[in-house]
Specification:
Order of helices and strands: EHHEEEEHHHH
Helix content: 25-40%
Radius of gyration: 17 Å
Number of strands: 5
């Protein structure tokens, strides 16, 4: 399961805070060795549960709803400290493909660490023009609606609309 963009509203950030969870921890679970299972009690079709550890070792369960336009964008709805049953599910699965989700050629955190250890670090001024960076940002509900409207008007994904807006802002600065 490919999750490239996590979309969070202020309401969701407040829900996370009520569970003593930060948006950064949700990102850590997404970037780490996590499992994805279909939400057994979905409120939205296609909803999934993402279960995995934060960098600090807390195992969280995160509810994600698919974006209706962008298949790589997911709306974070809430998260909580994983239950004992959810932790057992995570430990039993071990790998994403064991729970019936598509792997999409993703690699484990350990494999990524090995690759990064071997990679050459380039100064920013030597980066190729096509170099892409994964960027996580929190936007308020109004901004998210504007990005969704722009994406719908142009027939593009929300991620593309956000990239275009960031690019335009960077060029204007």
């Amino acid at each position: 399961m490919r999750v490239v963009v996590l979309l969070l509203t202020q309401t969701t950030i407040d829900k996370l805070a009520a569970h003593a969870i930060s948006p950064e921890e949700v990102r850590q679970v997404n970037d780490g060795d996590r499992v994805m299972i279909r939400n057994p009690r979905p409120r939205v079709e296609g909803s999934i549960l993402m279960i995995g550890p934060t960098y600090g070792g807390r195992v969280l369960t995160v509810v994600l709803n698919p974006d209706p336009i962008d298949p790589d964008a997911w709306h974070v709805r809430t998260a909580w400290q994983a239950s004992a049953a959810q932790i057992r599910r995570y430990e039993a699965a071990g790998r994403r493909e064991d729970v019936g989700m598509v792997n999409d050629d993703e690699i484990t955190s350990a494999e990524l660490d090995d690759l990064l250890d071997e990679a050459e670090t380039l100064p920013v001024d030597q980066l190729a023009g096509s170099t892409e960076v994964r960027l996580y940002i929190a936007v308020d509900a109004g901004t998210l609606r504007q990005l969704e409207q722009r994406a719908a008007q142009t027939g593009t994904a929300v991620t593309d609309a956000a990239s275009d807006a960031l690019r335009a802002g960077a060029h204007a600065a």
